[in-house]
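Why run this: before we spend reagent on co-expression, it is cheaper to look at a predicted model of the complex and decide which construct boundaries make sense. The entries below are exactly what would go into the expression plan.
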Amino acid sequence: MPIGFEDGSIDEFAMAIPDGAKVAIPADYAGVSMAATRALIRRRVKNLHLVGVPTSGLQAELLIGAGCVKTFESSALTLGEYGPAPRFTKAVREGTIQLVDATCPAIHAGLQASQKGIPFMPLRGILGSDVLKNHPGWKVIQNPFANNKDPIVAIPAIQPDIALFHAPLADREGNVWIGRKRELVNMSHAAKTAFVTVDAISETSLFETEEKAAGVLPALYVGKICVAPNGSWPLPFWNGAEVDDAHMRRYMEMAKSDTGFQNYLDQFVMQESVPA
Amino acid sequence: MPIGFEDGSIDEFAMAIPDGAKVAIPADYAGVSMAATRALIRRRVKNLHLVGVPTSGLQAELLIGAGCVKTFESSALTLGEYGPAPRFTKAVREGTIQLVDATCPAIHAGLQASQKGIPFMPLRGILGSDVLKNHPGWKVIQNPFANNKDPIVAIPAIQPDIALFHAPLADREGNVWIGRKRELVNMSHAAKTAFVTVDAISETSLFETEEKAAGVLPALYVGKICVAPNGSWPLPFWNGAEVDDAHMRRYMEMAKSDTGFQNYLDQFVMQESVPA
Amino acid sequence: MTDIADDKKALICLIANLLRDCNHVAVGAASPIPGAAALLAKAAWGTPRFVNILGSVANNFFTGGGGELFDCAAQGRIDAFFLGGGQIDGQANINLMGRGDYPSSNPRWPGTFGSAYLYFLIPKVILFREEHSRRTLVEKVDFISAPGLSDNSTYRKGGPFGLLTSKAFFRFDKDKKRFRLESIHPTSSLEDILDNTGFSFDYSKEAPLTAPPDPALLELLNQEVREKVAEVYPNFAEAIFPMTSSAAHAK
Amino acid sequence: MTDIADDKKALICLIANLLRDCNHVAVGAASPIPGAAALLAKAAWGTPRFVNILGSVANNFFTGGGGELFDCAAQGRIDAFFLGGGQIDGQANINLMGRGDYPSSNPRWPGTFGSAYLYFLIPKVILFREEHSRRTLVEKVDFISAPGLSDNSTYRKGGPFGLLTSKAFFRFDKDKKRFRLESIHPTSSLEDILDNTGFSFDYSKEAPLTAPPDPALLELLNQEVREKVAEVYPNFAEAIFPMTSSAAHAK
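The model came back. Tokens follow.
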């Protein structure tokens, strides 16, 4: 059973993510652990290397704004219809974070290379883009099976220290139900371990039926679980929750200025009161 | 909706698999369409290139014995505790089939390369084995990310024409439920199309619940479906059926000799009467 | 309000016609006009047979995780897709990264997403950007998120089909490596387009007006397809189908 | 009958002890002795914490398809595994392909399975072959399905730990590139082993007898673990636990 499974608070959970960790996080629709994100800011984590799989949103925006991030590796940071992410935009303009800009399938390919224990994965496309020109890790190689010139991009493995996400359910053995969100499985296989917040604990094994089992991340890959009901708030969750639209608009309003963002952190992160 | 979904017989289904096709088939425990296998023998299919994912068993043994196979590509052909596969053993001894002997993860890697539309996938291990020495397709390349000598095997993509297997359920839209058997998904993504026999038709969409949806192969990848209850007989099926032990023993007894095997074909394939 | 709704419906009908020859169209969750067009085409002609709305739960049939879209494109199983861009230039290069010198872009946009890959692999990529101005349609993008063209040694199965804006529709001519003005929307004119386009393009002085939507197609959109659009894009549906009461489509 | 059962139980207990330092052990569905050993070790010490019986439905926790085993090994998440071989030689090369000149092997065996890969990646690979004869333990295998050793430029995280037969247990010495006789089972003798081993190996004339199973461990196997073994390997359980009625374990 994962350490601290039963009695751990979200703040203890976040304490186990060390400064400087390379943390893989899912896109805003795939199950973001916003509860853990706020706890990370409370614990004043430093120098995170975030890997947005394949993009990120409010989670990276808050961590960047709070000064927790050294490197942001992803193919986008987007708040969708709410508009440009104010803290990210500012950090890029001022050069206060290191950017590793990729394209979605390359993030997946890098993780899959780690998952398969191979040094790289070849990937089509990308040639001739400025993303390739500026990426510190990618190389162009010749396809060894082609007789003619056939350049192809080699994407090196991305091995996160921790895959961090929110899921609906875990069972007492430490298995986690992720449904169709198989990128969470890939992330977890690729990472050294997975830290997962869940809405609830299932008292029966998630392997009890084949239907449920088909969407399970096995306990072997899971290092830590914390119960955090509605842990993706204010983001939407594929298992039911809608985005908290009013809160998102409020965030956009407050985060326009440095002081407004500090007020946001004080009010919603430091003295957290998550609506049920 | 797939062609011939409603009214097709298993023999019509098998007619749509052309001579010379490259057909991916699963291991004996993962859902083998034995019903389609017998129909293929009845239609006297020729020159199949079988890809056992990652191994095969009775299915390849019967097709090889019946003279339907030109090339057998896999990492093993095994009848498990029933002992050496008599028709396969004879064909190898007499050199009547072409062998492409691989190792399990290389079969998966070749299919995944096709699935990802890349020309090859690098894979660890294998170096120094006679499997590598004798494989017609693999190449050893230098890891482009290593400073020192670091040879790695490059596995070229395997793109089957057809992925052929048995599954518990399909719905009226052509979606197929494969539970945890994700190698069937990989096979189908890698192949040009998938031909699937199923125990039954679900009158409701397989996407109706997230639990069920997590184990679905979407209709986009499915070319043909045929209802064939107990279609994996006499092999076991992960969704319930046990192996027909008595029948397997009978097969082993009959297939010892050429005439015995012909009798087996006459009795159980040409004049099929599958027990319910 | 109604005028804007009508203009958007005209765009939906135009795009729907472009998707009629497709088997499978994928669209982003935040792309209501292309998404509505794909749903309309499916309802009108049964093609595309498959419409996949990414990021949606109910209207996304992928079961292999976030990577399946990209694998599916590489398999040749996606026929059409939509890309936008903060800047688009005359060689159909697109920039989703930001204005100015990378990496200190100002402003920075979200990033490249899957464009650097999908643009190479999906046969019919429709560039869709409603804002038609010299700010968005530029001579040369500041950053190439994805190039419109590649040399002959580059594996490329797909690329730009055309560019649709609020003023016009351009087809991309791969041989000439230029856009050609295909039709002008009724709200614009050739002069307006020349004034507001930052790149040079081919055109005929007799460039036709964009044909108005076929009434039957528009009727289908307003009746049958409206419900489907509202399921996926509720806010958008509210805006373009003003008769839709919010109660009727509350989840 | 009972003697054979006792011998097999002794092998199970011996292997269980070898698995005690593991977190995750994977075993094939057709490997009842290693499988029973892994289940016994888990029951006795809580380690291995994870036992994965491949090909089983109820005792296999992989959810990523047939490829997950191989990925999992490459990730360093499998600590021990078992390989056999129609031939095994003194350099720990194994042959699962067939006797004679490939490709017209005679007899042909099933094939290489995952051995050519897993042997490189799983730290503790235990070679297990009950038949101990000059036919199976040879000077040089006819076909290398997987090599026991690799040169320094080869990425190799795993390899042979030892070789267990019905007569003896050998440890593999990677520096000397040879097997060393670790212990002799009570049913055999040094002379018997020298007579029946086709490769040369290191040994001491005072090579000890294989220790008999710890009575408490044997008791645990016969009581608690028996049920678990019967769930996965019913035929095998019938054979080694003769008191087990078939009715009690029918599914």
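Chain A touches chain C through 55 residues (CB under 8 Å). The first helix of chain A runs from residue 10 to 15. Bring this page to Monday's planning discussion.
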